[in-house]
Amino acid sequence: MTPARRALLLAAPAWAWSGPVLAGAQVEEPLANAVRSALSAAVADAAPPKPSFDSIDQRMAYLRWLGQASDRLQRRKSDHHTRIEFLEAVWYESRRAGLETALVLGLIQVESGFRKYAISSAGARGYMQVMPFWARLIGDGDDRRLFHLQTNLRFGCVILRHYLDRERGDMFMALGRYNGSRGKAVYPDMVYGARRAWDIPVA
């Protein structure tokens, strides 16, 4: 990748992204039984609860974020209901996994360009480009479900959280693991660049 191309990718706003699927091949690694059980429990399919807030200020901040994020995503997802459903799911699943929502949106932008049915050359699927082997390792074995909105986001966020824990909180290295390019700067830099477009002030 040329320096000019890399700079363009880092500078491009989220709503302008239309590039190819850039997912790498996550490496299938043996999991200890305790880790496998914990990850399986984390991806267990349950409908997300309605957002709850401790104060009206928190609720208003969330609604402001939702409105601004929806405006930014409109060129990628024109249907309002689909757009809101997607953003609500990303907000819920990212926070459920203890991840920053803006970072997860940046990762989705880079991985799939916000395409629900994206498939990479390595076989990764959906918004967060989850490799099918994860459905066998920690799911019910049905990798077709990785195209389901909440399932894909649930798996992607749980996997990124797993990698972040393995890397002892080093997000740069965790992103490399997620992309199958651990230790290389191109992919984490692209995600961090995309993240900036989703860092929405709501105060």
Summarize the model shown:
The chain has 203 residues and is an all-alpha fold.
Overview of this protein structure:
- By secondary structure, the protein is mainly alpha-helical.
- The protein has a single domain, classed as Lysozyme (Orthogonal Bundle), CATH 1.10.530.
- It has helices spanning 3-11, 33-42, 56-73, 80-96, 101-112, 133-138, 149-166, 171-179, 186-195.
- Helix 7 packs across helix 8 (171-179) and helix 8 crosses helix 9 (186-195).
- The longest helix is centred in the first third of the chain and has 18 residues, at 56-73.
- The protein starts with a helix and ends in an 8-residue tail after the last helix.
- The model is unreliable at 1-21 (pLDDT under 50).
Task: Spell out the blueprint of helices and strands.
Layout: H1 3-11, H2 33-42, H3 56-73, H4 80-96, H5 101-112, H6 133-138, H7 149-166, H8 171-179, H9 186-195
Helix pairs in contact: 1-9, 3-4, 4-7, 5-9, 7-8, 8-9
CATH fold name: Lysozyme
Structural class: mainly alpha
Number of domains in the coordinates? 1
Helix content range: 40-55%
Briefly, what CATH class? Answer: Mainly Alpha
Question: Main beta sheet: strand number and arrangement?
Answer: none
Oligomer: single chain
Number of E-state strands: 0
Shape: globular
User: How far apart are the first and last residues' alpha carbons, in Å?
Assistant: 38 Å
Order of helices and strands: HHHHHHHHH
pLDDT averaged over residues: 85
Radius of gyration: 16 Å
What's the helix count?
9
Stretches where pLDDT is under 50 for at least 5 consecutive residues are 1-21
CATH architecture: Orthogonal Bundle
Strand content: under 5%
